[in-house]
User: Fold these one by one.
Assistant:
Number 1:
Amino acid sequence: MTLTAPSPTSAPGADDAVVPVRRVHVTKRDGTQEPYDADRINRAIERAAVGLPDQISKVTQIASELAITLFDGITTEQLDEAAVAVAVQNVKDDPDFDTIAARLLRKVIYKRVLGGYETDLELALLHQARFPGYVRDAVEDGLLDPRLVTHFDLDALAAALDHHHDERLRYIGTVTMRNRYMINDRHGRPLEVPQYFWMRVAMGLSLNEERPTEQAVEFYRRIARLEYLPAGSTLVNAGTSYPQLSNCFVMQMDDDIEHIATSVRNVMWLTKGTGGIGLSVTKLRSEGSPIRSNNTTSTGPIPFMHTIDSTLRAVSRGGKKFGALCFYMENWHLDFPQFLDLRQNSGDPYRRTRTANTAVWISDEFMKRVAADDDWYLFDPADTPDLVELVGSAFSARYAEYVADAQAGRIRRFRRMKAREQWTAMLISLQTTSHPWLTWKDSINARALNDNTGTIHLSNLCTEICLPQDRDTIAVCNLASINLAAHLVDGELDWDRMRASVRLAVRQLDNLVDITLSSVDESERANRANRAVGLGVMGFTDVTERLGYAYESEEAYELIDRVVEFISYHAIDASADLARERGPYANFAGSGWSKGLVPIDTLDRLEADRGVPVQVDRTVRLDWDVLREKVAGGMRNATLMAIAPTASIGLVAGTTPGLDPQFSQIFSRATSSGKFLEVNRNLVHDLQRLGIWEDVRDDLLAAQGDLSAVPGVPEHLRAVYRTSFDLSPYAFVEVAARAQKWIDQAISRNIYLASRDVGEMAALYQAAWERGVKTTYYLHMKPRHTAEQSTVRVNKAEVRPGAGVGGAGGAASAPTTTPRRGFGFASAAPTTATPVATVRPSGVDGGPAPALVPTTSGAPAAPSAPSVGATAPARGGFGFGRVASPSAVAQEAAPSTTQPDDAPSSAVVPDVVLEVTDVTDVVDGVACPVDPMERLQCESCQ
């Protein structure tokens, strides 16, 4: 390893001096070693940077930073991962580095699945040549459905594969696909490249078609172009040997021990199949309620909820993460105060839920009593059993009768309180624990077009599903989402393409109902009888930014109104056409559809029953009269639309989730697939067009991604790129209300609020109810948020004597096998002499919230970062994405006391400092993801 050479300064004949020369060898997969070939690596980086501006400087930056991470004996896989990680850590400077990282990572995937290649043509031929064998082998191994071999022309499907669609995938999307959706063999070896994955999903959703090969190709082309995507459970299981494809399950627990036990069993099976669950416990009698069969009293619903919460943790979702469930309770239940405490950190752990979420099912009667400052009575469901089934004015009338019975002493177990007292308790709990989510039962039931099959008692895990259920029925919904950003072409929405995407998505969802399997009979029956689907949207904020609209503007409100009307119209039309082709759903007769009603018609019904105006714009742009006549003739699906959060598939699509605004323009995202640096490409491109990106980049990073705190930015861009806490929270309500009038189900609507004033919260949620919003989801409060910041630069001029070639404070050493989380490299990987991380925090976990600064709009702005003199250990670095403990960071930062035999005694190494903004949410001293979509993927929550 050590070579001797004459010193360049020595004259001939002088004493020879020796200069140690460091050589690095790469360990190949077969265990043999070869000298590190820098030219070969540089060519690979060059290919990954093809077509990007300033290609040479980007390649040089990655190659030079990669060189300082190398150590002798590095494996080819470690080398690939290091190259990707170096590209990722530069994303803060230019999103083009994300493109390079994604290409490098996909090359790793290609090599592992398809083998080596040199040219693009070779890659295309490998995709096609190996596809039929991949399907046949996976079927033989029991991984894929045997019908994928018998029902399809595999050669024709292989010919349709186009690996150039991979260019649409960003780095985080590629990692998410690989870690969450693409299948491995029994030994954990990857079997799919992205286009195999898309085709497998398309095949799995075409099994019931008369011409399955043709239909699979059509589905494939749409989803491979990311124009719409099926939801997570569908992507995981489509085409596999166990096609559990449905996404949402909504069930109610009855008040008897047999049904409680059955419900626990059903939760276990549905959780195993990766479905998200909503579970109503309103029917369960309250604590202390007499049980006549054995002359004892009930323990109430809380212990049973704790049992189910433990069940979620015991049965992991397909090995991916804990089960996901939300409990629902109506707020007249006598045990509702205990329900409010379920998510508190303190208290009896046996009366808390650590995994399951909670939501409250609120009546119009309660909202009116809050407005009137009237009394509110809590009852035992054993005394008031019919309240669960009643809605609207019928509920109000019967509730008043029970109140009179309580006042007359005919009901003995009740509690009286001010409605505003309970309303305040809900809001305080929502503020401190993000639970319970607020949902409105009468808005949902009065506007339901599938109202002929019973009362809707709850929503689902993410609050967007509105389906009836009873003792023998577990309602099921099947989801997909239109990617609005993929339909924006040259500054205009391509309405023809969107129409085609909507119609194809509805057909694919209807196919899913016939193909999916369920381990629970109650859900299987409901799925086939109602064929409920929920087509949603994602990328709304992505589109508004690219069009130059502020989220809080009439242009944005008009956009969401027009877009959702268009999607709703054509989804309903497609379902009516499918009914003519395949027949209407079993429960069509007697439904609102059968009476010629469409979603917007139900606003009048809600308003009449409520007796309070629904305050929402009612502009109509399309000819709904023609569609009313058509739907009366038959509908294939009981429901058509629901806007889900799109937490994971939004990452794959590379767009903003659901209807959510940007949380920050630069922030770190921690998901179950790793830790990622997110930079808003739209903002960077706008700033680059103005020629000021280089000037404001560091200021934006220092401002934690808040553009309003960056000087020198034009005012119109500040408006377009206002982040979630800088927007008026009423903008979120208005966007939801405009969309909701066209949607037969509901919207998973996150709310962001900069103030902790309970009065402001009350007014905001009151406004949501008045505008006809059916449900809300997480509430995110600004004062919880603090941030850690660190700097990230590679100073190639600075040298530090006594450091080894491998990295900080020591010579290159053999790799350790510390498990690592981040950037998708979750398996054991080398630390390779980790560089020193210099951390300059702008806040500390659990510390006081920074003061809010009023803005000109009246809404509090993001706080300025307080100055903190002390340093703190890094949570994790973006160089290799490893999340280390403070002690581990300190240990790595210390000089190494060991060196390999051939290490030079006075080598020099550039000083590497990691730089990234790491934003965290601190709740009761516990750090949680800030980005709302991350909460759905956080291992500690779900």
Number 2:
Amino acid sequence: MSAHRRALIPQPTQLAHRPGFFTLRPHTSLRISPGAESAAALLRTLLGPPSGPAFPASPDGSFVLALDPRLTGLGAEGYGLTVAPDAVLLRAGEVTGLLRGIQTLRQLLPAEALSGLPVPGAVRRLPCVEITDVPRHPWRGFMLDVARHFQPVSLLRRYVDLLALHKLNVLQLHLTDDQGWRMPVAAYPRLTEVGGRRAQSMVGPAGSAEFDGVPHEGAYTRAELTGLVAYAAARGVTVVPEIEMPGHSRAAIAAHPELGAVPGRRVDVWTEWGVCDTVLGVHEPVFDFCRTVLDEVLDVFPSPHIHLGGDECPATEWAASPVARARAAAEGLADTGALHGWFLRRMGAHLRERGRTPVAWADTGEGLPPEFTVMTWREPEHTRIALKRGHSVISAHHRAAYLDYAQTASPGEPPAQPGAVVDLRAVHAHTVPESEDTAGELVGVQTALWTEFVSDPEHLDRLAFPRLCAFADRAWYGAASWPHFHSRLAAHSARLGALGVRHGPLHPHLPTPHSSGKEQS
């Protein structure tokens, strides 16, 4: 692909190439509209020379960041970009649109400019283009499970940058599960002191009898999380926290046995994978605990959406509990299994009272009030059903969007979630079921990477990329053809290399040159 025709991922809505180049120099001045100062700061951070400050502000600057609320057709994230030999004009109706355009400018530079190392002046040339770009979906998310295997905040910041480069706008953090609690809560320090540590980890899939004998631990500080939120916001990425309840809660119960469905029974932080039948109780102190935890979550994360997990909650312990049976009877529920939806409704109402929208993993949304946003993952048809029920829906179909499945059937494939291969083409071919005859709204799409088998950054990179590129192309642009996407990806891989991403195979049926899942949440 010629220097005049840079390969862009995701593909812009409208793109026209023009002759010539604009060269970014340290003295290139910026003309900054009122309100666009944060975009200018990001531009200087990402496109400025590594040697120091650049791009001074000037009322007659040749590089214009224009914020114009009258550009309503661009929506919250759309932008227009014109690169001419003597000027650059980036305009948007909202600041987030300018941030998206800056990521396009990064991709218009030669790949080596992304390395952060000093580069020749010629490498800082932008080919002349005219672009108008508007996303297909307002929610384009990536969920990372930091509960099964803790990941340091430095890695999370790196992934924020990678998401932003690909115009993905949500980082969902799966902060708690049976195998670990990573969210600090001042009122309950044992959640991280006890719940943040497990004695060992299962080797192999759920049901394996083999363990590694290696303790695993980790938790974030409040300062780390608030810093991450600010870092992500500056790049147009929202960090959405996920606190699992009422199932997937064994780490919390290990720290506070009084919270379990069998109050006072001591359990350890789970060392296995799969679905654990240890669940939260339904006595009132449990709800006091959940409200306290969620209020601290709200203080740390300004996200409009708060994820409550909500799936895979066995009712075995409730069925055996006199307290749970009495609670179900008192609430007029058909049986103890119905306590699941009742529990989520109570905690969802708590979030709604504080101006936030609750999100839950669900099949069709059955049992949840309409104010819940439903994240569907099992079957494409579930998305249609949830929409007809009136829910806002985020589609995360596991057979196209779960990146912990193997990418190839090669014997050299690293450990991955058991199940059929989800290769690069399957991710790019994924379509979201939509229907005009629905009461709900399709908010967007999400991909997920569960980390039972992922303990180091290299393995994480290899599973996430290049499939995350395919997901981003589909989420932002829509139905680009496979040959067109694949040709762009071949060029884009140089950018991944410059950023130190040790990605998986670019060709779905060939092994990766960098060789060294979860079907439930």
Number 3:
Amino acid sequence: MEHTEVLTRYTANFVDELAKSGVTDVVISPGSRSTPLSMTMVQHPQIKEWILVDERSAAFFALGLAKESEKTVALVCTSGTAAANYFPAIVEAHYSRVPLLILTADRPHELRDIGAPQAIDQIKMFGGYVKWFHEMALPEASDAMFHYVRRNASRAVQTANQGVCGPVHLNFPFREPLVPDFNLENIWGEELEENRPFTPFYDGIKQLTSEQIEEIKNLLQHHKKGLFVVGPQTNKQLAQVIVTLATKWQIPILADPLSQLRTGEHNKGNIVETYDAFLRDNAIRKSLTPDFIIRFGAMPISKAFLFYMKENAHIPQFVVEPFVGIREPVGNSTNMVHVDPVLFCKQVEKHVPHQSRSEWLETWIKMNDIARYHLVNEEDMKLTEGNATRILLEQVPEESTLFIGNSMAIRDVDTFLMVSEKRFSLLANRGANGIDGVVSSSVGAGATRRRVTLLIGDLSFYHDMNGLLAAKQYHLDVTIVLMNNNGGGIFSYLPQAETKNKKQFELLFGTPLHLDFKHTAALYEANYSVPKSIESFKAALHQSYQERGLSIIEVKSDRTENKEWHRNKWQQIQSEILQMRCE
């Protein structure tokens, strides 16, 4: 069998096995050495290709697509620094537990380490950020080799999805010529009729034994002032079972904005969503000492909650994780419960007696009501960042996705997202918490053809303007609310802002860009507006949701005014709560 046929059948068997293992989308950055993979991916009838020329943007696009679709997404690039540009998104995928399949083309072994062009060391180049690395064999034509590629394709997809999800890297050395021949008969192999993976994997569900349940029950049976905390997580079944347990136990639930608990049709009587606003006060934190804390999901975004955890290091704490892994950055002595969180709630609920309405729960609810009143009722109708975020959260459409940038964007959503019956999902890159790649990730989420709204700051937007090309190229429905305070607004709240050298602060931390983003909108053919009032902002949002394609709504603000506006809100809330506690 001559080279081209060997190359074609080898690659086609691999790609076909990806499809049988559940891969439906591949993001390709064109290049020469990756020709066999790219062309074969495009040829396969069950795989949808997305062509993005910038590898860094492509990887974050794939990340967003994988988050929204909850499926493994494949990435294909050529050899050399193309693969290195994947690194930031792979780091984020690792920490946010998102399955990606990284397929890098490479020079064959005889062209490595001799000064050949576009030949860098790609062996284990992503280090510990991938769950599995494998250097694929050079193409050969035999049943054993076809079974080899199918086995590794199946294993790669399953590994990305098993346990704690994450990225997997396969490196493909290819010799020239590189162009497959799709006129060959039966290139997808004999297994085409079997619609199942070459190596099926079966994962069981973890649950506690009766002895373990009894042990936890004995630890908690005399404690009444419990606290549930739900951080960033995506399990759609958790909301109902945890509110059922909390209602029976009569304890509050502190729900992070990415917990998926603040929105939806489940009961929200025990949910406290404004805790970040009042836990900022040291006296209030001291008045709310719990008997135990049980946390689900990652650590919440709120820094005030982090202080609260540190100050209560002596009380029993539990972290419920579906798989083995440690996400406990506070450093407290913690009971790690590795079990399916939905089953955990159902198991514990059977052993918890019905409690009457508790003063402990009432206290949290009263504080939540006070904070909610000050955050929702706004007498000053100026278009501040806070007011714009609040209005956006009210206007975001049902059954859509809100993608949230880091730094101030996610913190404003934490502050202003109130409980609601509206059904929409919230996503963010909160693994490594970087400001890079956010535009591309949000556009990737829109590749599912679900309408996406992105809330983002000007620095993060600038970092990833290349991501807008995919929205233009594929006519995706994305509304971007761009909070432009001309720099890094988050630093205004940090100790760096207290320096007396304001010029140095602006140079190193404020970092004003002085960019006119209307030119960016024109470059990518986006609908663009700069509302000056709350009413014009509402109108711009409404219009963007009626139109197809990309819209950019720029809200201009001042960093110093924004800081004082937020601090006044927090002070009003804390003063009223402290007064209530003294009465």
